[in-house]
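Standup, Tuesday
Yesterday: got the pipeline producing structure tokens again.
Today: sanity-check two examples.
Blockers: none.

Example 1:
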Amino acid sequence: MTVDVDAARAALQKIVARFPDTEISLRAEQRLAQLGETEKILLAQHDRQAMDVPAGVTNLGLLDSTAWLRPRAIEPGKLAAVHVKHLAQHPHDAEVREKLATIYARDFRRLDLATLELNQLINEPKHRPKQIAGWLNLLANFQVELGAEPAEVIATLEKIVEKFPDSSLSEITQRRLARIRLEFEAKKETPGVKLGVYEQNIGLKYGSPRQL
């Protein structure tokens, strides 16, 4: 079945215009961001080049290793640049913004940049409570992993209790708060990784998330 992308885009744009500043408008904007599949197209150009199979390789099952056939991992800096460019055009794409925050935290250990990205999602009032709680928990995870003070992590998790009292989200969070010290003890057993200047400045190279 062929999808009429132009017609779908026009329908979504009508929803945005008719129901501004609502959850349905936000969902429509996120769907618009996915329609063009900008991210997928850019990644395909970078990572999915045509690959010649050496002569004589007719049965992959007989090879000692097929590791060379696997797609090459994309360098995190280039992937971050793709996400930043995409978000400049589609700032409400929550999925891509979360991916960018994860790259900043996990690949470059930049808690400040990851926090900026996640806060944009957390502070968007039209997101669902479960999503907001998920991003606050993710931010707390990054804070634990990257050596934030326990008080900072506790404050992050307490926002869930404050925003959604008398809910299952609050109950789950309170259970995590009760064992937060154990998370820090487990973190002490994992050695840190020292990064160079390039990794530390990755966010500056591709532009601050504040500009998106």
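Example 2:
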Amino acid sequence: MVNFNQLRVFYEAARCLNFSQAARHLCVTQPAVTAQIRALEEAFEIKLFNKRGRRMALSEAGAVLLQHAHEVFEIEKRVEQAVGELRELKRGLLKIGTTKTYARYLMPTIISRFRESHPDIKIILDEGSSAEVSRSLLDLRNELAVIAMPEAMKGVDFFPFRREEVVLITSPRHPFTRTNGIPFSDLSGQLIVMKEVGSGTHALIKSVFEGLGLMPHILLETSNQEFIKEMVERGEGVAFLVRAAIQEDLATGRLAAVPILDRQLSFQVHIAHLTGADLSPAARAFLAILEAERDRV
């Protein structure tokens, strides 16, 4: 097996063809250089230098070794450069998980802000329910996540990010729109187009129904928000979505929002990562932007 310390001493000595000069470059003594070269020759069982008086030249074996040593240390330089670029955020890969809602309504702004400072970092944005994305951290598929906390999960730390308002939406022709709002219990018997199991919205609405001793009449469950909006617009049922997902639909009159008089419907959104995670430089930089965004909320 090649001793790389000996190889480095040989490389410098072969370039200089002078052991004393090589020793100065390496910040060691000349006898130390001589000893390392001798040890390398003994390990290879071949002479690496030819000497006559003060003149020195590489042997045939030494010339071959110099060529390969040069390749080795050029690779070392490239490795050091690559690692340095990762550390300095001049290159790298960042994997983030979030819900479909946040992928559309929050992440474009956050990612644009991140790329202003770190344009060479490649980002992979993974979408799923809050529960799915939480598990993706444990599976090491993502480093960071922005999600509702579906339940306590061992090995994952959750940090409050912002509260998200959840709104009851209906068709503009629905009888609820002719009121100033309804108590939550009036939803008993209403067909509900529900967000998928594992989402923060599903967990919130289910818990409110259970708290009132009621059962939701669920028409279907889906993660596709546009499908939910389409069904509600057609009058096939009512639904609950976060306000950020329906702002344009309310402004255009496609959908209507009906106040719930006896409940403040919202859930806490979290930033999540593995407990004790040693985040990559790119993940730490993205986390700093998320924390700055949280402070502005």
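Quick observation on example 2: The chain has a mean pLDDT of 92. The chain has three domains: 4-87, 93-161+269-296, 162-267.
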